[in-house]
Design brief:
Strand order of the largest sheet: 6-7-1-8
Number of strands: 12
Strand content: 5-15%
Largest sheet: 4 strands, mixed
Helix content: 25-40%
Number of helices: 17
Length: about 475
Protein backbone atom coordinates (compact mmCIF):
# COMPACT_ATOMS: atom_id res chain seq x y z
CA UNK A 1 0.00 0.00 0.00
CA UNK A 2 2.88 2.35 0.74
CA UNK A 3 4.37 1.71 -2.68
CA UNK A 4 1.11 2.11 -4.60
CA UNK A 5 -0.62 4.73 -2.46
CA UNK A 6 -0.19 7.29 0.30
CA UNK A 7 0.98 7.00 3.89
CA UNK A 8 0.06 9.57 6.53
CA UNK A 9 3.14 10.06 8.69
CA UNK A 10 1.35 11.83 11.55
CA UNK A 11 -1.95 10.04 12.10
CA UNK A 12 -3.40 9.73 15.61
CA UNK A 13 -6.18 8.03 17.48
CA UNK A 14 -8.67 10.34 19.19
CA UNK A 15 -8.71 8.08 22.24
CA UNK A 16 -6.08 5.34 22.74
CA UNK A 17 -8.39 2.47 23.65
CA UNK A 18 -10.62 0.18 21.59
CA UNK A 19 -14.24 1.31 21.93
CA UNK A 20 -13.84 5.12 22.34
CA UNK A 21 -11.36 5.22 19.45
CA UNK A 22 -13.67 3.30 17.17
CA UNK A 23 -16.59 5.46 18.30
CA UNK A 24 -14.66 8.51 17.07
CA UNK A 25 -13.87 6.81 13.76
CA UNK A 26 -17.47 5.73 13.13
CA UNK A 27 -19.03 9.04 14.28
CA UNK A 28 -16.50 11.64 13.11
CA UNK A 29 -16.77 13.28 16.53
CA UNK A 30 -14.37 13.69 19.44
CA UNK A 31 -14.89 11.41 22.45
CA UNK A 32 -16.20 14.14 24.76
CA UNK A 33 -18.92 15.00 22.21
CA UNK A 34 -20.30 11.45 22.06
CA UNK A 35 -19.45 10.76 25.75
CA UNK A 36 -17.50 7.64 24.78
CA UNK A 37 -15.68 7.45 28.07
CA UNK A 38 -14.37 3.88 28.28
CA UNK A 39 -14.63 0.43 26.72
CA UNK A 40 -18.13 0.08 28.20
CA UNK A 41 -19.40 3.50 27.09
CA UNK A 42 -19.36 4.12 23.35
CA UNK A 43 -21.99 5.08 20.80
CA UNK A 44 -25.67 4.15 21.05
CA UNK A 45 -26.47 1.06 18.95
CA UNK A 46 -28.69 3.10 16.60
CA UNK A 47 -26.11 5.84 16.00
CA UNK A 48 -25.92 6.83 12.32
CA UNK A 49 -22.41 6.01 11.10
CA UNK A 50 -20.73 6.85 7.79
CA UNK A 51 -21.52 3.34 6.58
CA UNK A 52 -25.21 3.85 7.36
CA UNK A 53 -25.19 7.02 5.26
CA UNK A 54 -23.40 5.25 2.41
CA UNK A 55 -26.02 2.51 2.46
CA UNK A 56 -28.79 5.14 2.44
CA UNK A 57 -27.20 6.71 -0.65
CA UNK A 58 -27.10 3.49 -2.68
CA UNK A 59 -23.96 1.68 -1.54
CA UNK A 60 -24.01 -2.03 -0.81
CA UNK A 61 -22.37 -2.30 2.61
CA UNK A 62 -20.82 -5.29 4.33
CA UNK A 63 -19.06 -5.66 7.70
CA UNK A 64 -16.92 -8.51 9.02
CA UNK A 65 -14.98 -8.92 12.25
CA UNK A 66 -14.45 -6.59 15.17
CA UNK A 67 -16.68 -3.50 15.32
CA UNK A 68 -16.59 -2.50 19.01
CA UNK A 69 -17.90 1.07 18.87
CA UNK A 70 -21.20 0.75 20.75
CA UNK A 71 -21.89 0.74 24.50
CA UNK A 72 -22.29 -2.31 26.70
CA UNK A 73 -19.36 -4.52 25.77
CA UNK A 74 -16.04 -5.66 27.33
CA UNK A 75 -15.58 -7.31 30.71
CA UNK A 76 -16.99 -6.26 34.05
CA UNK A 77 -13.39 -5.84 35.23
CA UNK A 78 -12.65 -3.39 32.45
CA UNK A 79 -15.54 -1.09 33.32
CA UNK A 80 -15.11 -1.31 37.12
CA UNK A 81 -11.41 -0.44 36.80
CA UNK A 82 -12.36 2.64 34.78
CA UNK A 83 -15.06 3.70 37.23
CA UNK A 84 -12.77 3.32 40.28
CA UNK A 85 -9.64 5.00 38.89
CA UNK A 86 -9.98 7.86 41.45
CA UNK A 87 -10.00 5.44 44.41
CA UNK A 88 -6.94 5.68 46.63
CA UNK A 89 -5.48 2.24 45.94
CA UNK A 90 -2.99 0.70 43.55
CA UNK A 91 -3.77 -2.77 42.19
CA UNK A 92 -2.33 -4.78 39.35
CA UNK A 93 -5.03 -5.22 36.71
CA UNK A 94 -3.10 -7.21 34.12
CA UNK A 95 -0.89 -10.26 33.97
CA UNK A 96 2.81 -9.60 33.57
CA UNK A 97 3.50 -9.15 29.83
CA UNK A 98 5.07 -12.28 28.34
CA UNK A 99 5.66 -14.08 25.05
CA UNK A 100 4.46 -17.47 23.86
CA UNK A 101 5.73 -19.29 20.79
CA UNK A 102 3.22 -21.76 19.35
CA UNK A 103 3.32 -24.32 16.55
CA UNK A 104 6.12 -24.72 14.04
CA UNK A 105 7.40 -23.09 10.85
CA UNK A 106 4.32 -24.30 8.97
CA UNK A 107 1.89 -22.69 11.44
CA UNK A 108 0.61 -19.65 9.51
CA UNK A 109 -2.88 -19.08 10.89
CA UNK A 110 -2.16 -18.29 14.52
CA UNK A 111 -5.05 -15.85 15.10
CA UNK A 112 -7.75 -18.17 13.77
CA UNK A 113 -10.73 -15.86 14.41
CA UNK A 114 -9.17 -13.05 12.37
CA UNK A 115 -8.33 -15.44 9.55
CA UNK A 116 -11.93 -16.70 9.49
CA UNK A 117 -13.20 -13.13 9.11
CA UNK A 118 -10.57 -12.43 6.46
CA UNK A 119 -11.73 -15.53 4.57
CA UNK A 120 -15.32 -14.28 4.75
CA UNK A 121 -14.31 -10.87 3.37
CA UNK A 122 -12.26 -12.47 0.58
CA UNK A 123 -15.10 -14.85 -0.34
CA UNK A 124 -17.53 -11.92 -0.40
CA UNK A 125 -15.27 -10.02 -2.79
CA UNK A 126 -14.81 -13.01 -5.10
CA UNK A 127 -18.42 -14.25 -5.06
CA UNK A 128 -20.62 -11.20 -4.45
CA UNK A 129 -18.81 -7.89 -4.94
CA UNK A 130 -17.75 -8.94 -8.41
CA UNK A 131 -21.43 -9.25 -9.43
CA UNK A 132 -22.75 -6.03 -7.88
CA UNK A 133 -24.18 -3.32 -10.09
CA UNK A 134 -23.98 -0.76 -7.28
CA UNK A 135 -20.85 0.56 -5.50
CA UNK A 136 -19.84 -1.21 -2.30
CA UNK A 137 -18.23 -0.42 1.05
CA UNK A 138 -16.58 -3.36 2.79
CA UNK A 139 -15.29 -3.18 6.38
CA UNK A 140 -13.00 -5.80 7.93
CA UNK A 141 -12.10 -5.42 11.61
CA UNK A 142 -9.19 -7.47 12.97
CA UNK A 143 -8.21 -8.13 16.57
CA UNK A 144 -4.50 -8.53 15.80
CA UNK A 145 -1.98 -7.30 16.74
CA UNK A 146 -3.77 -7.01 20.10
CA UNK A 147 -2.11 -9.18 22.79
CA UNK A 148 -3.81 -12.45 23.75
CA UNK A 149 -5.32 -13.47 27.12
CA UNK A 150 -2.90 -14.81 29.73
CA UNK A 151 -4.42 -17.95 31.28
CA UNK A 152 -1.48 -18.42 33.64
CA UNK A 153 -2.52 -15.28 35.53
CA UNK A 154 -6.05 -16.49 36.29
CA UNK A 155 -9.28 -16.37 34.32
CA UNK A 156 -10.05 -12.80 35.33
CA UNK A 157 -6.80 -11.26 34.18
CA UNK A 158 -6.52 -9.43 30.92
CA UNK A 159 -4.57 -9.85 27.70
CA UNK A 160 -0.85 -9.64 28.24
CA UNK A 161 0.54 -12.46 26.07
CA UNK A 162 2.33 -11.71 22.82
CA UNK A 163 1.71 -14.89 20.85
CA UNK A 164 3.05 -15.97 17.48
CA UNK A 165 4.57 -18.91 15.60
CA UNK A 166 8.09 -19.50 14.21
CA UNK A 167 6.68 -18.79 10.73
CA UNK A 168 6.00 -15.14 11.62
CA UNK A 169 8.83 -14.66 14.10
CA UNK A 170 11.39 -15.54 11.44
CA UNK A 171 10.17 -12.56 9.40
CA UNK A 172 11.36 -10.18 12.14
CA UNK A 173 14.92 -8.85 12.03
CA UNK A 174 15.72 -9.46 15.69
CA UNK A 175 19.03 -7.57 15.62
CA UNK A 176 17.30 -4.38 14.45
CA UNK A 177 14.96 -4.21 17.45
CA UNK A 178 15.75 -1.33 19.78
CA UNK A 179 15.47 -1.57 23.55
CA UNK A 180 13.50 1.49 24.73
CA UNK A 181 15.01 3.70 27.40
CA UNK A 182 13.18 3.83 30.74
CA UNK A 183 13.07 6.43 33.46
CA UNK A 184 13.60 5.12 36.98
CA UNK A 185 10.40 4.39 38.88
CA UNK A 186 11.02 7.37 41.16
CA UNK A 187 11.39 9.73 38.18
CA UNK A 188 8.25 8.62 36.35
CA UNK A 189 5.33 11.00 35.91
CA UNK A 190 2.73 10.03 38.55
CA UNK A 191 0.14 9.02 35.95
CA UNK A 192 2.75 6.95 34.10
CA UNK A 193 3.64 5.19 37.34
CA UNK A 194 -0.02 4.34 37.98
CA UNK A 195 -0.31 2.99 34.42
CA UNK A 196 2.89 0.97 34.67
CA UNK A 197 1.87 -0.51 38.02
CA UNK A 198 -1.68 -1.44 37.03
CA UNK A 199 -0.29 -3.02 33.85
CA UNK A 200 2.08 -5.12 36.00
CA UNK A 201 5.21 -3.57 34.49
CA UNK A 202 7.02 -2.15 37.52
CA UNK A 203 8.91 -5.37 38.24
CA UNK A 204 12.29 -6.34 36.84
CA UNK A 205 12.56 -7.10 33.12
CA UNK A 206 15.69 -8.31 31.40
CA UNK A 207 16.72 -6.78 28.08
CA UNK A 208 16.01 -10.13 26.46
CA UNK A 209 12.45 -10.13 27.83
CA UNK A 210 11.79 -6.64 26.50
CA UNK A 211 13.34 -7.43 23.13
CA UNK A 212 11.30 -10.63 22.83
CA UNK A 213 8.05 -8.81 23.59
CA UNK A 214 8.83 -6.31 20.85
CA UNK A 215 9.87 -9.04 18.41
CA UNK A 216 6.70 -11.02 19.00
CA UNK A 217 4.62 -7.87 18.57
CA UNK A 218 6.25 -7.20 15.21
CA UNK A 219 5.58 -10.82 14.22
CA UNK A 220 1.91 -10.32 15.12
CA UNK A 221 1.94 -7.21 12.89
CA UNK A 222 3.36 -9.34 10.06
CA UNK A 223 0.44 -11.77 10.41
CA UNK A 224 -1.97 -8.83 10.30
CA UNK A 225 -0.25 -7.58 7.16
CA UNK A 226 -0.77 -10.97 5.51
CA UNK A 227 -4.51 -10.71 6.09
CA UNK A 228 -4.54 -7.30 4.41
CA UNK A 229 -2.60 -8.90 1.55
CA UNK A 230 -5.33 -11.51 1.09
CA UNK A 231 -7.96 -8.77 0.70
CA UNK A 232 -5.85 -6.82 -1.80
CA UNK A 233 -5.11 -10.01 -3.76
CA UNK A 234 -8.84 -10.77 -3.99
CA UNK A 235 -9.50 -7.28 -5.31
CA UNK A 236 -6.67 -7.60 -7.84
CA UNK A 237 -7.75 -11.09 -9.01
CA UNK A 238 -11.33 -9.93 -9.60
CA UNK A 239 -10.29 -6.76 -11.41
CA UNK A 240 -11.85 -4.61 -8.71
CA UNK A 241 -8.62 -3.15 -7.34
CA UNK A 242 -8.25 -0.55 -10.08
CA UNK A 243 -11.63 0.95 -9.13
CA UNK A 244 -11.54 0.48 -5.35
CA UNK A 245 -10.11 2.76 -2.68
CA UNK A 246 -8.47 0.78 0.15
CA UNK A 247 -7.89 2.34 3.59
CA UNK A 248 -5.85 0.64 6.32
CA UNK A 249 -5.68 2.00 9.87
CA UNK A 250 -5.86 1.00 13.54
CA UNK A 251 -7.82 2.09 16.60
CA UNK A 252 -4.60 2.67 18.59
CA UNK A 253 -0.99 1.62 18.84
CA UNK A 254 0.95 -0.66 21.19
CA UNK A 255 3.65 0.53 23.59
CA UNK A 256 5.40 -2.87 23.55
CA UNK A 257 7.38 -1.94 26.70
CA UNK A 258 8.16 1.66 25.75
CA UNK A 259 7.91 3.89 28.85
CA UNK A 260 7.80 0.70 30.95
CA UNK A 261 4.33 -0.18 29.66
CA UNK A 262 2.59 -2.44 27.19
CA UNK A 263 -0.88 -2.05 25.71
CA UNK A 264 -2.26 1.44 24.95
CA UNK A 265 -4.13 3.99 27.20
CA UNK A 266 -1.26 6.46 26.87
CA UNK A 267 -0.54 9.60 24.85
CA UNK A 268 3.01 8.49 24.08
CA UNK A 269 3.67 7.88 20.38
CA UNK A 270 3.67 4.09 20.64
CA UNK A 271 0.10 4.19 21.90
CA UNK A 272 -1.50 7.26 20.28
CA UNK A 273 0.15 7.25 16.83
CA UNK A 274 -1.62 4.97 14.33
CA UNK A 275 -0.91 3.69 10.81
CA UNK A 276 -3.02 5.24 8.07
CA UNK A 277 -2.50 4.24 4.44
CA UNK A 278 -4.74 4.85 1.44
CA UNK A 279 -4.48 3.62 -2.14
CA UNK A 280 -6.79 3.57 -5.14
CA UNK A 281 -7.88 5.48 -8.23
CA UNK A 282 -7.01 9.17 -8.17
CA UNK A 283 -4.46 8.76 -5.37
CA UNK A 284 -0.86 9.51 -6.23
CA UNK A 285 1.54 6.65 -5.60
CA UNK A 286 4.37 6.75 -3.03
CA UNK A 287 3.06 9.84 -1.27
CA UNK A 288 4.23 10.64 2.24
CA UNK A 289 1.84 13.13 3.81
CA UNK A 290 3.11 14.90 6.92
CA UNK A 291 -0.07 16.81 7.84
CA UNK A 292 -1.53 16.02 11.26
CA UNK A 293 -4.64 13.86 10.89
CA UNK A 294 -6.73 11.64 13.17
CA UNK A 295 -9.40 8.95 13.04
CA UNK A 296 -12.32 11.42 13.13
CA UNK A 297 -11.22 12.26 9.58
CA UNK A 298 -12.37 8.84 8.35
CA UNK A 299 -16.10 9.77 8.52
CA UNK A 300 -15.95 12.84 6.24
CA UNK A 301 -13.43 11.07 3.98
CA UNK A 302 -15.79 8.15 3.34
CA UNK A 303 -18.66 10.52 2.55
CA UNK A 304 -16.38 12.57 0.30
CA UNK A 305 -15.38 9.45 -1.63
CA UNK A 306 -19.05 8.56 -2.11
CA UNK A 307 -20.06 12.09 -3.14
CA UNK A 308 -22.35 12.43 -0.12
CA UNK A 309 -22.73 15.89 1.47
CA UNK A 310 -20.55 16.08 4.60
CA UNK A 311 -22.26 17.36 7.78
CA UNK A 312 -20.72 20.59 9.05
CA UNK A 313 -20.79 19.60 12.73
CA UNK A 314 -18.10 16.92 12.47
CA UNK A 315 -14.81 17.07 14.38
CA UNK A 316 -12.95 15.61 11.42
CA UNK A 317 -12.00 16.83 7.95
CA UNK A 318 -11.89 14.89 4.71
CA UNK A 319 -8.51 13.47 3.75
CA UNK A 320 -9.27 13.66 0.03
CA UNK A 321 -7.81 17.17 -0.48
CA UNK A 322 -4.53 16.01 1.09
CA UNK A 323 -4.53 12.86 -1.01
CA UNK A 324 -5.12 14.88 -4.18
CA UNK A 325 -2.70 17.68 -3.25
CA UNK A 326 -5.37 20.38 -3.22
CA UNK A 327 -5.56 23.45 -0.98
CA UNK A 328 -8.32 22.62 1.48
CA UNK A 329 -9.85 26.08 1.57
CA UNK A 330 -10.55 25.67 -2.16
CA UNK A 331 -12.77 22.64 -1.66
CA UNK A 332 -14.04 22.77 1.93
CA UNK A 333 -16.62 25.32 3.07
CA UNK A 334 -15.16 24.89 6.57
CA UNK A 335 -11.79 26.16 5.40
CA UNK A 336 -8.42 24.48 6.00
CA UNK A 337 -8.03 21.75 8.62
CA UNK A 338 -6.61 22.76 12.01
CA UNK A 339 -2.86 22.58 12.55
CA UNK A 340 -3.39 20.28 15.56
CA UNK A 341 -5.00 16.99 16.51
CA UNK A 342 -6.79 16.12 19.75
CA UNK A 343 -6.72 12.87 21.66
CA UNK A 344 -8.33 12.23 25.04
CA UNK A 345 -8.60 9.29 27.43
CA UNK A 346 -11.00 8.60 30.29
CA UNK A 347 -10.77 4.84 30.85
CA UNK A 348 -8.90 2.22 32.90
CA UNK A 349 -5.17 1.99 33.77
CA UNK A 350 -4.92 5.81 33.95
CA UNK A 351 -5.98 7.64 37.11
CA UNK A 352 -6.92 10.98 35.54
CA UNK A 353 -8.70 12.15 32.40
CA UNK A 354 -5.95 12.86 29.88
CA UNK A 355 -5.85 15.29 26.96
CA UNK A 356 -3.24 15.55 24.22
CA UNK A 357 -2.78 18.36 21.73
CA UNK A 358 -0.28 17.58 18.99
CA UNK A 359 0.95 20.47 16.82
CA UNK A 360 3.92 20.85 14.43
CA UNK A 361 6.71 19.74 16.78
CA UNK A 362 4.99 19.95 20.14
CA UNK A 363 3.04 17.39 22.09
CA UNK A 364 1.19 18.86 25.06
CA UNK A 365 -0.44 16.49 27.56
CA UNK A 366 -2.55 17.74 30.44
CA UNK A 367 -4.65 15.98 33.02
CA UNK A 368 -7.86 16.30 35.01
CA UNK A 369 -8.50 19.98 35.85
CA UNK A 370 -5.19 21.22 34.46
CA UNK A 371 -3.76 22.00 37.91
CA UNK A 372 -3.84 18.96 40.19
CA UNK A 373 -1.54 16.87 37.98
CA UNK A 374 1.67 18.10 36.33
CA UNK A 375 1.34 18.61 32.55
CA UNK A 376 3.85 17.25 30.05
CA UNK A 377 5.43 18.93 27.04
CA UNK A 378 7.64 17.16 24.51
CA UNK A 379 9.53 18.55 21.54
CA UNK A 380 9.16 15.62 19.14
CA UNK A 381 11.71 17.04 16.71
CA UNK A 382 14.46 16.98 19.36
CA UNK A 383 13.09 14.23 21.60
CA UNK A 384 11.20 11.68 19.46
CA UNK A 385 11.30 9.09 22.27
CA UNK A 386 9.50 11.52 24.62
CA UNK A 387 11.96 11.08 27.47
CA UNK A 388 12.30 14.69 28.63
CA UNK A 389 9.30 16.64 29.90
CA UNK A 390 10.10 20.31 29.26
CA UNK A 391 6.81 21.83 30.47
CA UNK A 392 8.54 23.74 33.29
CA UNK A 393 11.23 25.02 30.93
CA UNK A 394 8.74 26.44 28.39
CA UNK A 395 5.81 27.94 30.33
CA UNK A 396 4.81 30.27 27.49
CA UNK A 397 4.50 27.34 25.08
CA UNK A 398 2.46 25.44 27.65
CA UNK A 399 0.13 28.40 28.13
CA UNK A 400 -0.26 28.88 24.38
CA UNK A 401 -1.05 25.21 23.74
CA UNK A 402 -3.36 25.04 26.73
CA UNK A 403 -5.30 28.02 25.37
CA UNK A 404 -5.77 26.22 22.04
CA UNK A 405 -6.85 23.05 23.85
CA UNK A 406 -9.41 24.92 25.95
CA UNK A 407 -10.83 26.48 22.79
CA UNK A 408 -11.54 22.94 21.55
CA UNK A 409 -12.72 21.32 24.78
CA UNK A 410 -13.49 22.66 28.24
CA UNK A 411 -11.42 19.85 29.67
CA UNK A 412 -11.74 20.69 33.40
CA UNK A 413 -15.53 20.51 32.99
CA UNK A 414 -15.33 17.27 31.01
CA UNK A 415 -13.03 15.70 33.63
CA UNK A 416 -15.47 16.65 36.38
CA UNK A 417 -18.35 15.18 34.41
CA UNK A 418 -16.48 11.90 33.90
CA UNK A 419 -15.72 11.67 37.63
CA UNK A 420 -19.41 12.06 38.36
CA UNK A 421 -20.35 9.54 35.68
CA UNK A 422 -17.86 6.99 37.08
CA UNK A 423 -19.25 7.28 40.59
CA UNK A 424 -22.88 6.98 39.47
CA UNK A 425 -22.11 3.95 37.34
CA UNK A 426 -20.24 2.22 40.16
CA UNK A 427 -23.01 2.87 42.68
CA UNK A 428 -25.59 1.45 40.28
CA UNK A 429 -23.45 -1.63 39.65
CA UNK A 430 -22.80 -2.16 43.37
CA UNK A 431 -26.50 -1.93 44.20
CA UNK A 432 -27.33 -4.45 41.48
CA UNK A 433 -25.09 -7.04 43.17
CA UNK A 434 -26.65 -6.82 46.61
CA UNK A 435 -25.01 -9.21 49.05
CA UNK A 436 -22.77 -10.62 46.32
CA UNK A 437 -20.85 -7.34 45.98
CA UNK A 438 -17.83 -8.26 48.17
CA UNK A 439 -17.32 -11.61 46.45
CA UNK A 440 -17.68 -10.22 42.94
CA UNK A 441 -15.40 -7.20 43.33
CA UNK A 442 -12.72 -9.30 45.00
CA UNK A 443 -12.52 -11.62 42.00
CA UNK A 444 -12.12 -9.17 39.15
CA UNK A 445 -8.82 -8.81 37.26
CA UNK A 446 -7.14 -7.34 40.32
CA UNK A 447 -7.98 -10.44 42.42
CA UNK A 448 -4.36 -11.45 43.11
CA UNK A 449 -3.75 -8.16 44.93
CA UNK A 450 -7.25 -7.55 46.28
CA UNK A 451 -7.55 -10.87 48.09
CA UNK A 452 -4.47 -10.03 50.19
CA UNK A 453 -6.28 -7.12 51.93
CA UNK A 454 -9.95 -7.13 50.87
CA UNK A 455 -11.21 -5.02 53.77
CA UNK A 456 -8.61 -2.32 53.10
CA UNK A 457 -9.66 -1.98 49.47
CA UNK A 458 -13.39 -2.03 50.22
CA UNK A 459 -12.82 0.73 52.76
CA UNK A 460 -10.94 2.80 50.18
CA UNK A 461 -13.93 2.52 47.84
CA UNK A 462 -16.33 3.51 50.63
CA UNK A 463 -14.23 6.60 51.35
CA UNK A 464 -14.23 7.50 47.65
CA UNK A 465 -17.98 7.13 47.45
CA UNK A 466 -18.43 9.47 50.42
CA UNK A 467 -16.43 12.26 48.79
CA UNK A 468 -18.25 15.09 47.06
CA UNK A 469 -17.50 15.93 43.43
CA UNK A 470 -16.75 19.56 42.69
CA UNK A 471 -18.55 20.57 39.52
CA UNK A 472 -16.76 23.00 37.21
CA UNK A 473 -18.99 25.22 35.10
CA UNK A 474 -16.47 27.55 33.48
Amino acid sequence: MKRHGAVFLNAYTNSPICCPSRAAMWSGLFSHLTESWNNFKGLDPDYVTWMDLMQKHGYHTQKYGKLDYTSGHHSVSNRVEAWTRDVDFLLRQEGRPMVNLTGDRRHVRVMEADWRNTDKAVAWIREEAINLTQPFALYLGLNLPHPYPSPYAGENFGSSTFLTSPYWLEKVTYEAIKIPKWSSLSEMHPVDYYSSYTKNCTGQFTKKEVKNIRAFYYAMCAETDAMLGEVISALRDTGLLKETIVIFTSDHGELAMEHRQFYKMSMYEGSSHVPLLVMGPGIKEQQQISNLVSLVDIYPTMLDIAGIPVPQNLSGYSLIPLLQGKAEDEVSPRGPRPSWVLSEFHGCNVNASTYMLRTDKWKYITYSDGHSVLPQLFDLSADPDELTNIAVKFPETVNSLDKILRSVVNYPKVSSYVQEYNKKQFISWKQSLGQNYSAVIANLRWHQDWLKKPKKYEKAIDEWLSQRIIKINT
